[in-house]
Design goal:
Chain lengths: 315, 310
């Protein structure tokens, strides 16, 4: 019995997504090289900074599971933040402004989803197109400048506490639970996994694949809207280009987390660990004192290495 | 031949409509100076899009062209400004080719092209930023300025460069084994591999070429504007993809060609030029470029769907 158990564990360790190793390795390295890394204050900081990434990556997981990709998530988050900030500046009630931001994300998701599922266009080119459209709209609406000073209502979503926990961390937990239930306990979730397998067979079996595929992108967009709320609250301002690049971190988190581009293989918990690993990497590079420019390239290099290693392992 | 003219008819009509509309909008449009200017701008876009066309013909994509352009131009500029024109240019080209080779390696290993080259986009952009530290390098030796701003027999050099690259690409795609492999590979990768074509080697070559041409486009670009900063590449990606798509090259590979991309680059440049003449806010440009990419791909898909059912 102990033999089979041992084998089972060896298998699990070998099959664990790269994110687990990356997270452990990065944490060890930064704990050794910087005194500040392993402090409660800094770890809370990682959680706070990572919350937007986790929220956005949850949606990206479902999109990638369905054999899609969404390169527009970053700029769409930027645009949703701009919509939120402008609405607040126009004295719109806060709940309505938040709703408008989330609706902005959902609309872009729907646009992407319909073009991809109805017309059969490659997801990366459709979402690259909406990347430009969302960024353009955000720039036009703000004339390229920030919208600062949004007041305590918005700031609550960064500074507030519920039961002693920071609001962004609570929101991330809720988002994770909701997406978890959707993915693992609903018909929709089952079809998302199946979409990554054989879409032709699924369609022939009478499943409305186009509807579910569109739904995946809408969910991704809605989560980008939620992420925009947290991001805008943290900065107490909206900036039109704030989201650019976030889509890369999100895609990296998902892949590091063990979700693959083919065959509907994936794990939502892995995405969470992946997003934490990326956040730890950024935080640690910051503590070491590397400039943002170095961070951009180092994060890129580390992530590409991880992806290549992952694909070489044949997972 | 008749098929070629039939399929490119909508694009030629689009160009004529744009030309007529723009000449009504602004009397300055139809001046020799403005038209030469348009061709000169189109040459940069065409160069960048030409390598991309070959990649897309193999059913791949190269999202890193803009930032590879920025990285190689940034490094090259540092040497060129010191007066090392040839050494700097060669180093720039080598960096471009190396980035492309890395892309090719990742794709050959089995990564989806859009994810491999998207990763390269951020790596190259990051290194360009590290290298430039947010500064601008300007003021190159006159010898180097010849490439982007010079004239040969009264014709701007970039336009001549564009014509030469167009000819070379047409020859390579139509008259060489490499060209046949590119189309074959894009049409059916598995069949190409089974018939004994060195698919991996050709992939490496295709992506390296794309990186090399991006770097070359970067040299022409910084030679024209006489300056470089780390962000010059970012706004170029969408127009380049749009030029290829409008040019009728299918994103699914195996269909299209470099001539279409030439027309696509002209159309995209006319659109940008028109927006400038109309005094539209530059902030609209990402939106317009994005919309054109989506629309052109969608229209292309509609067209091919009709052909299939007919």
């Amino acid at each position: 019995m102990s033999e089979t158990l041992r084998r089972e564990w060896t298998r699990r360790v070998a099959m664990a997504p790269g994110a687990v190793y990356a997270l452990i390795l990065l944490s060890l390295v930064f704990a050794l090289f910087t005194a500040q890394f392993l402090t409660l204050h800094n770890l809370t900081n990682v959680g706070m900074q990572g919350s937007v990434l986790v929220i956005v990556s949850l949606g990206m997981t479902l999109i990638i599971l369905s054999e899609g990709i969404d390169l527009s998530i970053g700029p769409v988050l930027g645009l949703a933040g701009v919509v939120l900030a402008l609405a607040v500046k126009q004295q719109v009630a806060l709940p309505l402004a938040i709703l408008a931001a989330i609706a902005t994300g959902g609309t872009f998701g729907a646009l992407n989803g319909v073009l991809i599922s109805r017309l059969g266009l490659p997801p990366f080119v459709v979402t690259l197109g909406s990347f430009g459209m969302a960024q353009g709209l955000a720039l036009v609406l703000t004339e390229g400048s920030s919208v600062p000073g949004l007041g305590p209502g918005v700031q609550y979503f960064n500074d507030g506490r519920i039961l002693g926990f920071q609001v962004p961390i609570i929101m991330t937990a809720i988002a994770f639970l909701v997406v978890y239930v959707i993915l693992y306990y609903t018909k929709f979730g089952t079809y998302v996994f199946a979409l990554g397998g054989n879409q032709e067979a699924l369609a022939l079996a009478g499943v409305r694949t186009r509807l579910y595929k569109t739904g995946v992108y809408v969910l991704g967009g809605i989560l980008a809207g939620v992420g925009a709320l947290v991001m805008t609250a943290r900065m107490n301002a909206a900036h039109p280009t704030v989201g650019v690049g976030l889509e890369f971190d999100a895609i990296a988190s998902v892949i590091l987390g063990g979700t693959s581009f083919e065959r509907g293989k994936g794990w939502l918990g892995g995405t969470m660990i992946g997003a934490l690993a990326v956040s730890v990497l950024r935080n640690g590079l910051n503590l070491i004192g590397l400039s943002t420019s170095w961070q951009v390239s180092m994060v890129g290099v580390v992530i590409i290495l991880a992806i290549v290693v992952d694909s070489l392992r044949g997972i | 031949m008749s098929h070629f003219w039939l399929s490119s008819l909508p694009r030629l009509v689009m160009i004529i409509v744009l030309l007529v509309a723009l000449s009504f909008v602004s009397p300055a449009f139809l001046s020799v100076q403005n038209l030469t200017n348009i061709l000169r701008q189109a040459s940069l876009l065409f160069l960048l899009a030409s390598g991309l066309t070959v990649v897309i013909l193999t059913a791949g994509i190269d999202l890193s062209i803009g930032s590879v352009l920025a990285l190689s131009a940034s490094v090259a500029a540092n040497f060129i400004q010191q007066g090392w024109i040839w050494a700097g240019s060669l180093i720039g080209l080598a960096i471009g080719a190396a980035c492309g080779l890395l892309n090719g390696l990742m794709v050959a290993v089995g990564l989806p092209p859009f994810i491999a080259t998207y990763g390269m986009l951020w790596v190259a952009e990051g290194f360009a930023q590290v290298f430039m530290k947010g500064e601008i390098i300007s003021g190159f030796p006159t010898g180097f300025r010849f490439l982007g701003a010079g004239y040969l027999a009264g014709v701007p050099v970039p336009i001549l460069v564009m014509i030469v690259v167009l000819m070379v690409c047409i020859f390579a795609l139509r008259r060489t084994n490499f060209g046949r492999y590119v189309y074959f590979f894009g049409a059916n990768r598995e069949a190409a591999r089974l018939s004994g074509i060195n698919t991996r080697g050709n992939l490496l070559l295709v992506y390296s070429l794309s990186g090399l041409i991006s770097a070359f486009a970067g040299l022409v670009y910084i030679s024209r504007i006489d300056a470089v900063e780390s962000t010059i590449g970012e706004p170029l990606l969408l127009p380049a993809i749009a030029a290829v798509c409008i040019g009728g090259t299918s994103l699914f590979g195996g269909e299209g060609g470099i001539g279409g991309t030439m027309v696509g680059a002209l159309i995209m440049t006319l659109v940008t030029n028109g927006m400038n003449l109309l005094n539209a806010s530059p902030y609209w440009q990402p939106f317009v470029m994005g919309a054109i990419v989506v629309l052109s791909v969608a229209i292309d898909q509609f067209g091919s769907a009709k052909v299939e059912t007919a």
